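Troubleshooting log. The previous structure file for this entry was overwritten by mistake, so regenerating from the original sequence record. Sequence copied from the archived sheet and checked twice against the printout by T.R.
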Amino acid sequence: MTRVLQRLMYKTQVPSHCFQLQFGPFNSTTQRRWKKPVVTAQTRLEDRTRDLKLDYLMTNFRKISLILILRDLMCARRRGPFVSVQIMSRWNNIVGLNVPIGGFLRKYPHVFDVFTHPIKRNICCKLTSKMTMLLQEESNVIRDMELDNVRRIKKLLMISVTGTLHIHALRLIRRELGLPEDFRESILAKYSSEFELVDLEIVKLINRDGVDEGLKVAEVEKWREREYREKWLSEFETKYAFPINFPTGFKIIAGFKGKLKDWQRLPYVKPYERKEVFRASTCGGIEQFEKRAVGILHELLSLTVEKMVEVERLAHFRRDFGIPVNLRELILKHPGIFYISTRGSTQMLFLREAYRKDYLVSPNPVYVVRRKMLDLILLGCRSTRELDSPRQVKESVGDQNRGAVVESDFVTSILENLDDNNDGNKENGEDTAAVYREEASAT
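Regenerated output below.
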């Protein structure tokens, strides 16, 4: 009896939420409440089929963005094109590095040149000549594509419901669109007959109705025309269809193909069309509105240089484009058209049809230059044999393996040039040291 009282007293002291119902032979008939799993954007993002090629490409693009941020911080310094590594170590939080700055710089010797200052004797860093030439080439290519940039901004303003866009939103995706840093002065202000600055941060398209009809054709319309002509498909099948390309390993459940076929045939208001706003009460009204949002996102990605953009920056276009929906959830509903990569600290949206593995199907000049930057970064600590042809490299390696001594006029000329360059570098080093001494004495 005392044991029973002690158990009752113990249960009254301990809170009831600490006890869990243990299922056994005496209470096996007790019903457990079953909750339906919630399907949200987060669960869709976690359960999606991953594309390893695009994830790997996103990892490499992350390296380029880090290097460009460091370049901007280095250019902001007034003392010259080089910066002390000690000062750069304070930029880890600004750049977002989780490794020491010294190890990061030595990891990419083809991008960063780490040297010792001749006067102060501290370790400094600057960009290599190869990286500087590629950055200059990119800026030149962007300047030469000025008319293409005007066309891109026009098409974005034509997609807008009111014909206006916030300059802040364009500035956020400036690099993705291939616009110059001073696009407000070099494009918007220069072409005043095409654009009007309504406010300090709002641009408007002049004579929206008088725009060339060729600008009102979306990129997906060109694909539909090719499908209609080359594959002899009916107009009913291709008039409102989108290119579908599922990632490897995507599981198709029962009934999915039928729903996809119905969705491909569903009519919708195209991005450059101005028609009556949809009505949710009509048959398929919400589906048509979501399909219009898919068409707008598809066209926005088609206008970018590398066919990708950050998901968070799309929120700045929702009101202007008239798509008040959850963009992330809408994107995850269509894994055959879009892909979200979560590598790094940002979520990047890719247009699947534009890529084959990790390369663009139709490259453009800006993408070609940026791909050269990526190849230079991916070299890492490997050295390049630019002086030797592949055949000469194989012959030299073979002779070394057989124990022979390689002697040729080609190698001798290279060694002589290296000696001359070393002598010239010594003289240049003495001259620069003298200049630093004069500056130090003057200060």
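The longest helix spans residues 409-442. Archived copy saved in two places this time.
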